[in-house]
Amino acid sequence: MMGKGSVAQNEGKDWIFLSDAHFTGENRDNQDRLIRFLDGERENLAALVLIGDLFEFWFGFEGYVYSEYVPILEQLKSLSRRGVRIKYVEGNHDFCLGSFFEEDLKAEVYAEEMEESLGGKRVYIAHGDRVDPRDYGYRLFRKALKNRFSYALIRWAGPALSMKVARRLSARSRRKNHSQTRGHMPSFRTFAMNKFREGIDVVILGHSHYPEEVLERIDGREKVYYNVGDWITRFSYLRYRPKVGFKLCYHEDRL
What is the C-alpha to C-alpha distance for residues 139 and 145, in angstroms, rounded to an integer? Predict the structure, then answer.
Protein backbone atom coordinates (compact mmCIF):
# COMPACT_ATOMS: atom_id res chain seq x y z
CA MET A 1 0.00 0.00 0.00
CA MET A 2 1.30 3.41 -0.94
CA GLY A 3 1.72 5.87 1.89
CA LYS A 4 2.17 9.63 1.72
CA GLY A 5 3.62 11.97 4.29
CA SER A 6 4.77 15.54 4.72
CA VAL A 7 7.60 17.45 6.33
CA ALA A 8 5.41 19.51 8.66
CA GLN A 9 7.27 18.24 11.72
CA ASN A 10 10.91 19.13 12.45
CA GLU A 11 11.24 21.49 9.50
CA GLY A 12 14.81 22.39 8.68
CA LYS A 13 16.26 19.17 10.03
CA ASP A 14 17.80 16.30 8.04
CA TRP A 15 16.30 13.08 6.73
CA ILE A 16 18.44 9.94 6.61
CA PHE A 17 17.71 6.91 4.42
CA LEU A 18 19.48 3.58 4.86
CA SER A 19 18.89 -0.12 4.29
CA ASP A 20 20.35 -3.63 4.27
CA ALA A 21 22.16 -3.89 7.57
CA HIS A 22 21.07 -7.53 7.96
CA PHE A 23 21.78 -7.54 11.68
CA THR A 24 21.99 -11.03 13.16
CA GLY A 25 23.26 -10.39 16.68
CA GLU A 26 26.17 -12.76 16.08
CA ASN A 27 28.52 -9.87 15.37
CA ARG A 28 27.54 -6.69 17.19
CA ASP A 29 30.13 -4.41 15.56
CA ASN A 30 27.90 -3.13 12.74
CA GLN A 31 24.91 -2.73 15.03
CA ASP A 32 26.96 -0.76 17.53
CA ARG A 33 28.35 1.36 14.71
CA LEU A 34 24.84 2.29 13.56
CA ILE A 35 23.82 3.12 17.14
CA ARG A 36 26.79 5.47 17.47
CA PHE A 37 26.01 7.08 14.11
CA LEU A 38 22.35 7.69 14.99
CA ASP A 39 23.32 8.95 18.43
CA GLY A 40 25.46 11.60 16.78
CA GLU A 41 22.63 12.61 14.42
CA ARG A 42 19.76 12.80 16.89
CA GLU A 43 19.92 16.59 17.49
CA ASN A 44 19.45 17.47 13.82
CA LEU A 45 17.30 14.57 12.60
CA ALA A 46 13.73 15.01 11.41
CA ALA A 47 13.18 11.52 10.03
CA LEU A 48 14.90 8.16 9.71
CA VAL A 49 13.69 6.09 6.75
CA LEU A 50 14.69 2.41 6.90
CA ILE A 51 14.31 0.89 3.44
CA GLY A 52 14.12 -2.75 4.45
CA ASP A 53 16.28 -5.58 5.73
CA LEU A 54 17.57 -3.85 8.83
CA PHE A 55 17.57 -7.38 10.26
CA GLU A 56 18.56 -10.70 8.76
CA PHE A 57 15.10 -11.92 9.75
CA TRP A 58 12.17 -10.28 11.47
CA PHE A 59 8.73 -11.74 12.04
CA GLY A 60 6.27 -9.93 14.26
CA PHE A 61 5.51 -12.54 16.90
CA GLU A 62 2.95 -11.21 19.38
CA GLY A 63 4.64 -10.12 22.60
CA TYR A 64 8.10 -11.27 21.50
CA VAL A 65 11.20 -9.29 20.53
CA TYR A 66 14.44 -10.91 19.39
CA SER A 67 17.04 -10.28 22.08
CA GLU A 68 19.74 -9.92 19.39
CA TYR A 69 18.05 -6.76 18.15
CA VAL A 70 17.31 -5.03 21.46
CA PRO A 71 20.22 -2.50 21.29
CA ILE A 72 19.21 -1.01 17.93
CA LEU A 73 15.51 -1.16 18.84
CA GLU A 74 16.21 0.82 22.01
CA GLN A 75 18.02 3.42 19.91
CA LEU A 76 15.06 3.68 17.54
CA LYS A 77 12.69 4.04 20.49
CA SER A 78 14.88 6.79 21.92
CA LEU A 79 14.83 8.67 18.61
CA SER A 80 11.07 8.31 18.38
CA ARG A 81 10.61 9.74 21.86
CA ARG A 82 12.64 12.78 20.80
CA GLY A 83 10.20 13.40 17.96
CA VAL A 84 12.18 11.82 15.13
CA ARG A 85 9.83 10.22 12.62
CA ILE A 86 10.68 6.56 12.03
CA LYS A 87 9.52 5.10 8.73
CA TYR A 88 10.10 1.51 7.66
CA VAL A 89 9.51 0.06 4.19
CA GLU A 90 9.55 -3.73 4.47
CA GLY A 91 12.23 -5.65 2.59
CA ASN A 92 12.41 -9.29 1.61
CA HIS A 93 13.74 -10.27 5.06
CA ASP A 94 10.92 -8.49 6.89
CA PHE A 95 7.62 -10.11 7.81
CA CYS A 96 4.72 -8.53 9.72
CA LEU A 97 6.61 -5.63 11.28
CA GLY A 98 3.36 -3.87 12.11
CA SER A 99 2.52 -4.42 15.78
CA PHE A 100 5.85 -3.80 17.53
CA PHE A 101 7.08 -1.10 15.19
CA GLU A 102 3.81 0.80 15.04
CA GLU A 103 2.78 0.48 18.70
CA ASP A 104 6.10 0.44 20.57
CA LEU A 105 8.30 2.52 18.27
CA LYS A 106 5.46 4.69 16.90
CA ALA A 107 6.87 4.03 13.45
CA GLU A 108 5.09 4.23 10.11
CA VAL A 109 5.32 0.85 8.36
CA TYR A 110 4.83 0.30 4.64
CA ALA A 111 4.56 -3.19 3.21
CA GLU A 112 5.94 -2.36 -0.24
CA GLU A 113 6.47 1.32 -1.08
CA MET A 114 5.88 4.89 -0.01
CA GLU A 115 5.95 8.38 -1.41
CA GLU A 116 7.09 11.64 0.21
CA SER A 117 7.28 15.28 -0.79
CA LEU A 118 10.67 16.80 0.00
CA GLY A 119 11.80 20.20 -1.22
CA GLY A 120 8.92 20.34 -3.68
CA LYS A 121 9.95 17.02 -5.26
CA ARG A 122 7.99 13.79 -5.44
CA VAL A 123 10.11 11.09 -3.83
CA TYR A 124 9.37 7.39 -4.34
CA ILE A 125 10.88 4.89 -1.87
CA ALA A 126 10.90 1.08 -1.96
CA HIS A 127 13.23 -1.72 -0.92
CA GLY A 128 13.95 -2.69 -4.52
CA ASP A 129 13.52 -6.46 -4.56
CA ARG A 130 10.57 -6.20 -6.98
CA VAL A 131 12.16 -3.97 -9.63
CA ASP A 132 12.71 -6.70 -12.24
CA PRO A 133 9.37 -7.91 -13.68
CA ARG A 134 11.20 -10.68 -15.57
CA ASP A 135 12.64 -12.27 -12.45
CA TYR A 136 9.83 -14.81 -12.33
CA GLY A 137 11.71 -17.21 -10.07
CA TYR A 138 12.20 -14.61 -7.36
CA ARG A 139 8.65 -13.29 -7.65
CA LEU A 140 7.27 -16.81 -7.21
CA PHE A 141 9.59 -17.38 -4.24
CA ARG A 142 8.46 -14.07 -2.69
CA LYS A 143 4.79 -14.98 -3.05
CA ALA A 144 5.47 -18.35 -1.44
CA LEU A 145 7.05 -16.59 1.56
CA LYS A 146 4.79 -13.58 1.95
CA ASN A 147 1.25 -14.84 2.32
CA ARG A 148 -1.11 -15.71 5.17
CA PHE A 149 -0.43 -19.45 4.94
CA SER A 150 3.34 -19.09 5.31
CA TYR A 151 2.78 -16.57 8.10
CA ALA A 152 0.61 -19.11 9.92
CA LEU A 153 3.35 -21.71 9.52
CA ILE A 154 5.98 -19.31 10.90
CA ARG A 155 3.78 -18.53 13.90
CA TRP A 156 3.34 -22.25 14.53
CA ALA A 157 7.11 -22.86 14.32
CA GLY A 158 7.84 -20.07 16.81
CA PRO A 159 10.68 -17.54 17.06
CA ALA A 160 13.66 -19.86 17.67
CA LEU A 161 12.98 -22.40 14.93
CA SER A 162 11.88 -19.72 12.46
CA MET A 163 15.11 -17.77 13.02
CA LYS A 164 17.21 -20.90 12.53
CA VAL A 165 15.50 -21.79 9.26
CA ALA A 166 15.60 -18.18 8.04
CA ARG A 167 19.36 -17.91 8.61
CA ARG A 168 19.99 -21.07 6.59
CA LEU A 169 17.80 -19.87 3.74
CA SER A 170 19.40 -16.42 3.83
CA ALA A 171 22.93 -17.80 3.67
CA ARG A 172 22.00 -19.90 0.64
CA SER A 173 20.23 -17.00 -1.05
CA ARG A 174 23.11 -14.60 -0.45
CA ARG A 175 25.66 -16.96 -1.97
CA LYS A 176 23.47 -17.35 -5.03
CA ASN A 177 22.08 -13.87 -5.55
CA HIS A 178 24.33 -11.10 -4.23
CA SER A 179 27.25 -12.24 -6.33
CA GLN A 180 24.97 -11.56 -9.33
CA THR A 181 23.62 -8.21 -8.15
CA ARG A 182 25.79 -6.09 -10.46
CA GLY A 183 24.22 -7.90 -13.39
CA HIS A 184 20.77 -6.80 -12.22
CA MET A 185 21.70 -3.15 -11.67
CA PRO A 186 20.28 -2.03 -15.07
CA SER A 187 16.89 -3.29 -13.83
CA PHE A 188 17.04 -0.79 -10.95
CA ARG A 189 17.77 2.04 -13.38
CA THR A 190 15.02 0.95 -15.77
CA PHE A 191 12.57 0.82 -12.87
CA ALA A 192 13.59 4.34 -11.85
CA MET A 193 13.16 5.64 -15.41
CA ASN A 194 9.61 4.26 -15.49
CA LYS A 195 8.87 6.06 -12.23
CA PHE A 196 10.30 9.28 -13.66
CA ARG A 197 7.86 9.02 -16.56
CA GLU A 198 5.04 8.72 -14.01
CA GLY A 199 6.03 12.10 -12.57
CA ILE A 200 8.37 11.00 -9.78
CA ASP A 201 11.42 13.24 -9.31
CA VAL A 202 13.58 11.12 -6.99
CA VAL A 203 13.66 7.31 -6.69
CA ILE A 204 15.32 5.80 -3.61
CA LEU A 205 15.93 2.04 -3.44
CA GLY A 206 18.03 -0.48 -1.53
CA HIS A 207 18.41 -4.26 -1.91
CA SER A 208 21.35 -4.22 -4.34
CA HIS A 209 23.88 -3.38 -1.57
CA TYR A 210 25.63 -1.12 -4.11
CA PRO A 211 25.44 2.67 -3.60
CA GLU A 212 24.42 4.49 -6.77
CA GLU A 213 23.55 7.98 -7.94
CA VAL A 214 22.17 8.28 -11.47
CA LEU A 215 21.05 11.64 -12.89
CA GLU A 216 18.61 11.90 -15.77
CA ARG A 217 16.90 14.82 -17.48
CA ILE A 218 13.35 14.31 -18.72
CA ASP A 219 11.37 17.11 -20.36
CA GLY A 220 13.86 19.61 -19.01
CA ARG A 221 13.51 18.42 -15.40
CA GLU A 222 16.34 16.82 -13.45
CA LYS A 223 15.52 13.37 -12.05
CA VAL A 224 17.72 11.30 -9.75
CA TYR A 225 17.87 7.63 -8.81
CA TYR A 226 19.69 6.71 -5.61
CA ASN A 227 20.54 3.34 -4.19
CA VAL A 228 21.51 3.71 -0.54
CA GLY A 229 23.82 0.67 -0.57
CA ASP A 230 24.26 -1.23 2.70
CA TRP A 231 25.39 -1.08 6.33
CA ILE A 232 27.49 -4.25 6.08
CA THR A 233 30.70 -3.34 4.28
CA ARG A 234 30.02 0.06 2.67
CA PHE A 235 28.23 1.83 5.52
CA SER A 236 26.51 4.09 3.01
CA TYR A 237 23.36 6.13 3.42
CA LEU A 238 21.45 8.95 1.79
CA ARG A 239 21.00 12.32 3.50
CA TYR A 240 18.40 14.93 2.61
CA ARG A 241 19.15 18.40 3.96
CA PRO A 242 16.56 21.13 3.37
CA LYS A 243 17.82 23.98 1.14
CA VAL A 244 20.74 21.75 0.10
CA GLY A 245 19.14 18.57 -1.23
CA PHE A 246 20.15 14.91 -1.38
CA LYS A 247 23.65 13.56 -0.90
CA LEU A 248 24.92 9.98 -0.95
CA CYS A 249 27.22 9.59 2.05
CA TYR A 250 29.59 7.09 3.66
CA HIS A 251 30.00 6.80 7.41
CA GLU A 252 33.48 7.00 8.84
CA ASP A 253 33.56 5.59 12.34
CA ARG A 254 35.95 7.58 14.52
CA LEU A 255 36.57 5.69 17.76
Answer: 10
**Which residues are registered as beta bridge partners of 26?**
none
Strands 113-118 and 121-126: antiparallel
DSSP-assigned beta bridge partners for residue 125: 114, 204
Q: How far apart are CA 86 and CA 76, in angstroms?
A: 8
- Is 255 contained in some domain? no
Rounded Cα–Cα distance for residues 54 and 101 (Å): 13
The model scores a pTM over 0.90: no
Quick: pLDDT tens for 24-36.
877 799 999 999 9
Total structural domains in the chain?
A: 1
CATH of the domain at 62: 3.60.21.50
Domain membership of residue 223 as a residue range? 14-250
Q: How far apart are CA 250 and CA 83, in angstroms?
A: 25
What burial letters (b/e) apply to 73-93, b meaning 16+ CB within 10 Å? bebbeebbeeebbbbbbbbbb
